Structures are given as C-alpha cells and as structure tokens.
Amino acid sequence: MEMNRRQMLALAVAAAALSACGDSRQQKQAAAPVKSGAQVIDPNRPSSDDWPFEEAEQLNNSLTWPKTNVPDPASKVVITLGFTTDAVTEVRNAQFDFFFKKRHPNIEIKRESAPFDQFLTKYMAQAAGGSLPDVLYNHYSWTQNLIANKVLHPLDEFIAKTPEFDMDDIPQRGLGYFQRDGALYGLPTDMAPKLLFYNKDLFDKAGLDYPDESWTWDKLFETAKKMTSGSGVEKIYGVSPMPKPAPDLSSVFLMPFGGRFLDVAESKVMIAEPNARDVMARWLDLLLKDKATPSLAELQLLEKVDPFKSGHAALFINGAWVMLELSKQKAFKWGSTQLPKGPEGRTSPAVGSALVMAASSQNKDAAWIYMNEFLSASGYKFRRIAAPARQSAWEDNAKALGIPVEEADLVKKIMAEYASDDGVLRLPANKKVVDTALPIWERAQLGKISVDDALKEMVDKVTPVLSENKIA
Amino acid sequence: MTAVSVRSTLARREARRFHLFVSPWLVGFVLFSAGPILAAVVLSFMEWNLLQSPRWVGLANYVRMVNDPEFWESIENTVQYGLGAVVLGVSFTFLLALLLNQPLRFQGLFRTVMYLPSVVSGLATALLWINILHPDYGLINKLLASVGIQGPGWLASQEWAIPGLVLMSVWGAGNTIVIYLAGLQGIPKTLYEAAEIDGAGWWRRFWSVTVPMMSPVIFFNVVTGFIAALQSYVLILVMTEGGPGNATMVLGLYIYRHAFVYFDMGYAATLSWAMFVLVIVVTAIQFSLAKRWVHYEFK
Amino acid sequence: MLLETAARPARTKPGPPLTSEQAERIRRIRRSGAYVLLIISSAVFLLPFLWMLTTSLKSDADNLAFPPQWFPDSFHFENYVKGWTGSLPFNTFLLNTIVITALSMTGNLISCILPAYAFARLRARAAGIMFTALLATMMIPREITLVPKFIMFSKLGWVDTYLPLIVPEFFGVALYIFLLRQFFTTIPQELIDAARIDGASELRILWSVMLPLARPAIAAICLFSFVGNWNQYLENTLYLRSMEKITLAQGLGMFSGQYVTQYNQMMAVALLSMLPILIVFFLAQKTFIRGVTLTGIAGR
To answer: CDD domains given for it (chain A) (predicted)?
Structure first.
C-alpha cells in the first residue's frame, strides 16, 4: 500500500511538474504570436540527411530566380502556406522558404503541413472557420469543387504581369482540372503520365521480349497470361493492378478501345456500353480465370505496396512518379515504355497536383511572388521532385535523383504527344462516383456477380450521384 | 420541527450539494458541448458543404436516409460488429482479467504485455492484422491449414470480413481489462472467506461473490463497449475502407465519409442522429435489464 | 485470490480433509496452469509489438517484401536515429505532446471526481435527467460536433493554440465520470454512514473514504486520459497548424507521403513515442493490487 501511494504521488508530481512547465510555455506562446518556424527545423540552417544545407545553398546560388512585375510589399507581410508534405520533403520546402526570404525580406512565411489523407478535412474546416492559408496545395480532383464554391482566386492577371512565367513549358492538356470558364485557378506542382513498367529479370527468365511501343493491349493480355506462374510465396502475376472504378479509369484502360466510364461532361455513365464493357470483362477473366493479376486480398496486403515493387509481377501500370522508388531499389532491373495501343489509339492520363490561391487572401501579391518562384523551372529544380510539371526541369531532376535519362525522355515525349486530362474525373461528385461504383466492382472481383450485372448496377447507382456535377 | 420538514431540509441540502458537485461538468457542457450539439441538430435539416452558407431543406435529409439502402446496410453491419465485439470482448477480457489478478510472479509484466495492443499505433495494428487474416499467407489460416481446415477469406470475403474485425477488436481491448482489474480490487476479501466458510466451491464463489460484486463494472464495460463498438470506424477505414463490396461499411464510417470526404454535413448530421438513436436504444435496453443483475451498494 | 481459494477442492464437506501436502500440490498445478495460459496469451498479445519492432529494423527494400517478412535480413538500428532526428524535429513534437497531455490529464482528474461522486452518492430531483444527459453526450458521434466546435473555437481565435485541446478537458469527461461513478457505487454504504455519524463533511468523506478506495479507478482514468491525449490525432490535425506546434501523433503521420510510406522509420518513431505510455501503464497497474484497506475495515 505504501508503495502504491508513492507511485501515485510520483505520477502526481510528474504531472504537476509537466503542467508547470507547460504553463510557462503556454504563456510564452500567447505573448509572442505568429513567429514562423520558431523551434522547427533550424530556421537559420534547415538541413537533413537527405537534404544537406550546403547542397541546398549551392544549388540555390546556381539557379536564376525569375522576376515578376508584381511588386514586393513595401512593409513586412506574412503569407501562410498549406502544403501536404512528408518528413523528407518538408525539410526541402523549409530550405526553399529560407532562401526565398533572403530574396524577399519583406515576405514572412508561415508554413503548415498536413498529411495527404487529412489534408482536405483540415482545410475544408479551416475554410468554414474563415481562415484559409494564402497558398494551398490542391489535388487535381478537389479543385473544381473549390472553384465552384468561389473559394479560389484566378491566377491569370498575375501570369499576365509575369512575362517570364513560361506557360508553354507546362503541358496545356493537363490544366483542365484547374480551369473554369476561361480562367485558370491552379498551377501544377507536378504532373505525370501513366506508363507500362516491366521487370526485366522476369522477362529474361521467361525468354520473352521486353514490352515496347509496338505493344497493343491484346499483346499485354497475352503476355500477362504467359508470365503468370507459381503459387503462394512463389506467385508471379502477369500484370498489376487491374482496372477498378477510379478517376483515371477511362483514360488508362477504356479510351484506347473507344469506351468511357463517364462522358466528357461527367453527367452520364457509359461503362455498360459495349466498348467499355468488353474491356472490363476481359480483365475480370484475367483475374478470375487466369489468375494473372492480383486479387483484392493480394492488393490489400500492404497499402501502397504493389506486388511489382517486390518483384512479384511482370508488368505494372502506374504513374511516372514511381520511377524514383524503382530507381532506388536494387532487387531487380526494370524498364518502362508507353501504355499499349488499342483499336482507337493510345491514351494516357496527365495528372498532377497544383498550388491555388485563396480568394480570401489578404496578401495576394506576396502569395503570387512565392508561387512564381516555387513553380518556376528553378523552383522545380530546387525541389528536385520526380515528376515536374515544367518539362524543362525533367532532365536535371532525373539526373540528380538517379532516374535513367532515357526514362525521363520517354515521359517528356508522352507529355508532349498525347497525355491529357481528357477522361479523368474532376467534377465535384468524383469521389462519390468512385465510392459508389467500387463496392459493386469488388463484388464482381470476388465472383459474386457477373460483369454485366455489375456494370448495370453501376449505371443505376452512379447516375443519381452525377446530378451533383451540375454546377450553376 | 416535524420529522418531515427535517427530512426535506436534509434532502434540499443534499440536492444543493449535488448541484454544486456536478457543476464542473455542467458548466463545461453548457460552454463547450451544448452549442455544437444544437448546431448538429439544426444541420440535419440543412444542406451544407462547409464552403457556402447552409441552406434549409426541411426533412429532406431524413427522407433521403430512410430511402438509402446503404444506410440500412450499414446499420446491419454496425449491429453485427457491435454485438460480436462486445459479447466476445467483455467475456474474454473478464477471464483474462481474473487471470491477471492472480498474485503470480511477473504480474506487472504480463499485464503490460496484454495492454500493448491498445497502445501500438493504429497503422501498425492494421498492417499486422491484414497480415494475420490474409487468406493465403496469414497466421490464422496457416494454423487452420496445419490441422486440415481450409480457412475463410477473412477481410477479402464479404461473409468473413466482420468476424475478422471482431477478432481484432477483442485483441485490442486492453482498456476493458484495465477497468476489470481496477474493479477486482474492490471486492472485500472477507466476502470470499465468508463464502468459503459456507462451503462454497470456486464456481459458486465466482457466481455469488465475484460476479455480483463486479456487476457495476461489468455493466460499465458492456454499456461503454457497445457505445464504442457502434461508433468505431477508424481501424476499419484503414483496413478495408468499408469493403469488400460494402461488407464492412459500418455506420461510423458512413458518417465519416459524408462528413469528411464528401463534406455533405447536413446528411452526415442526419446519419449521426440515427446513430445516436441506435446507441440510445441499445443503452436503454441495457439499463432496463441492469435492474435484474447489477448490484449497487447505494440505490 | 480466486485461484488460491480454488486450489482447495470444491466439495470438501463429504470427503476427508486434504493434507496440506495434497493442497500444496494442487495449488502448484493450478499455478503452472495459469502460467501456461498467461504465456500463450502473452505471445498472442506481443505480436503487434514484435511486428513493429522488426518492421522498424528493416531496410527500405525489406519493407517491400511480398509476402511481408517477419524477420529482416539485416538489422538497421539507424532507422531510429534517422526517424527521430533525420528530418523532423521530434524533440519539439515530444515537448508539445507532453504539455498537452499533462495539462489535459490534470484537468480530467480534477474535474471528474466531484461530478462522479455526486452522481453516485447524492440524491437530487434533477440527478436522473442529468445522468441521462451525461450518458447522451457519450453517444453523439464526435464527427458531427467536430466542425461546429471548430467554428466555435475559430471565432474565439483559439485555432493554432493548445487552448481548444486543453481547456475543455477541465470541465469533465463523460466517460470518466461514468467510470468513476460506477466505482463509487460499489463502496459499502456503512463506511459512508459511519463517517457521517462521526460528523465528516461530504468533501471529507470523498477525500478520506471514497478516494483511497477508488484508487485503482483513478489510476485507470489517469491512464486512459494519458493515452487518449498522447495519441489524439484528428483534433490535433484540425487545431494545430504551425509546424512548431504539432504533436508526436501528427509527426508520425508525416512518414506517410502521398505515394510512399516509410514504414521502417515510422515504426521506429512510433515505438519510441509509445514508451512513455508503457511507463504510465506500469505505474498505474501497480495500484491494481488488492487493497488491504477494504478488508481491514467494517468487519464484513
């Protein structure tokens, strides 16, 4: 008992001590409001293992930073940025801000970060509470909803005042997500097409030729069946992942055959029509009959980890952004090529995220000055991201990140020739459309309902949801 | 003074004290909860996407809910999950708590180990259980296979996904164990001694001393266990996102989606009140049953 | 206790009394049975911890293995250093978390005891309806009051401060009040009556009769409050905006990027941030030892 009382006492004392030091901290914060970056990542020398300060400084000095006719503020202003970053990129952004502030002493930066999964929840609530940041990250599937609700400020006037802001360097076909009624509300932070990746080791072992530009989807189905082997831990899948209701379903899988998930205006479900239906049926056969593509259970095993990444799939359909991860691994050799052709030609989505400016921003000029530099070719090169929307930054970044130059050239070629936003869902109901259709498709993947029943049910259930896409 | 008025003065004094003692909570309720709750009531009659001003729609959300098959499906899933999680959880953890209450060596260590699952990160738990329940590589099905049984598809099958989640919930019920352990300390040893003198075996002592003395605590665990189970969705969101084919779309997850994915706050509020009614009905049933089995020292 | 008493055979009356040797043997068998059960269940309950541990020691490449490996090919202890100090200021996050948790826990403790006592032991006409209201607040899904609450605190200018996370904690938590109330109801009425006859005030009774007996329950509340605030995620994400104010749970979330999750570093940091909880648990569970107080008094 004595012992217990001591323990309780220890707990109480610890709590009191903690609360005491908490109190003083609390007051300090109240006394000194908004001082950005106080204790985070050393504000005078942001640095990490991945991004040493010296490298950042050297790179920063070697780049030319763009000008704009938008004037710098005459007195100190604070702009708030709401980005989604992870542990690694957060430091790089801090370094960018550090050098930016040196160039613009009157612009103070308050940087916020939320994980991707929580981002929209957080900032929609902030919008309802009346305090959005000046500059905000945006996934391509969110922007139209924000535009429709008049939360964003168009950027055209600022672009006009910035002759150096080379719009031709950004793929025009990938801007549809951010445009409405002739105005542009977002500028991409990254943009990439989808590619066909392959595991060279597995192809060598099977004695088959690597996929190339001549491939058709028929050839892909045929090869996927041939490349499938083993079971359990030894299982090799021909191709991964199979199509499912997703924003880019049409663009990757259906449009080469003349089919679509929804029509262009996103007001009509077209997935049960013959061209789309046949594609979905073939994939379902590939799953259920040939077991050549991972099932629901296999894809569930590890979030964001596809069997291809562990050497258990021969072919992999994914965005160019996975090149970075693939380049870092040494377990197998890989290559990439364009997505296969269909009877109606070749298509690929061009998808990416953007920065937008809040209509409520009190410091739009300063916000633009920041966006201008962050989204310039120099900005892209400084951030060293794997899929820059500015095509002129691709080669530099690929070299710095260890991505083979021929892969970078391939991506640039696809972006220049045909990758586009056509067929990628973006109107306000897009998430609901996917969530409504997905469970139905999962039942088909489990073999519970036939492909025709599934597609018909999708039409019935998704159609009413589409009324939310009609924006006044 | 008459006896009656003395009693009523005493009663009044006791009532005054009650109000005084309850005031911390009551003030907090008025300051921080009443407003938002009221707002949630009003919201259920409105359409609101967080970005525009709310718009009055009358009963439209309620009409929509009654005609929403996914809503009814989610109620069914929620009740299945809740029943499974509580019945299995409350009884299994009670036995574990009895075991952990024995004066054995390494008692503190054993207790800490049993509490571990309640502390590890949600993501770790999710990844682990996706692995344990995996139809081909999972531990459970491997064990079943070693005795010649072909295990079910668990989270990858519509029929077994909820049982799989129930299994997981029992394993993470460290808080329930803690409450039981705390409760077990309150049973006077003398009661056991008295029962023993009466010749009661351990089985009878369990039923005539442990269970009645623990009944307020068991009751607490059942009531709050149901509330938690009926509202839970976080792990389900990470593990199955309601799939496959809506088999694990519980009401909590359905509300979360409408509130924080579609930002359809009006409908989310309506769904929330449906959940509130569901929880309150379940709790009311328990309180009425409690009169038969829960033993209070003070009534 | 159950086990000790159970060691004596149930039907003692008709048979001859056991020798102390026989009783000792049976007790020993029971005891080893208990150990076996405990060890088996411990193994099951240890799984998540082992999983985190091995994941935290894996190389980046092993993280991708399919099917996932339980044991890494090589051990990478540097994940701990990298995760904690490599890029994000986890020391700052730790300090922030300690501040929020300590204040909230203190608030919970001082604000739950009085209402719980009132609900358990004091009579008033409004008691029934208030208790119902208390329970009802637990039943309203928190998701739906989250946004109205957020707007309320925004209007107060409390966003990006710790106030919305701490201040409400000083006004009682329904769950803990309910829990404590249940424990207060199990305390024998004679003890209270005896104290009243001795002229003790209501507060005196609470302080010197009820609280010592409810010590395990209070330890449980401390524990729950600690864990709850330590791991709080949704509210923190909503209210805390500046990087220098965020907490451990939020920092952990930042290992999960849009495309890639660094599972090894995430688990390493998650394990480190779990340690304080385990220490608090270990302290709390020490109070879960049969109190001598109860058996010593009242002669029941």
So the answer is: PBP2_TMBP_like
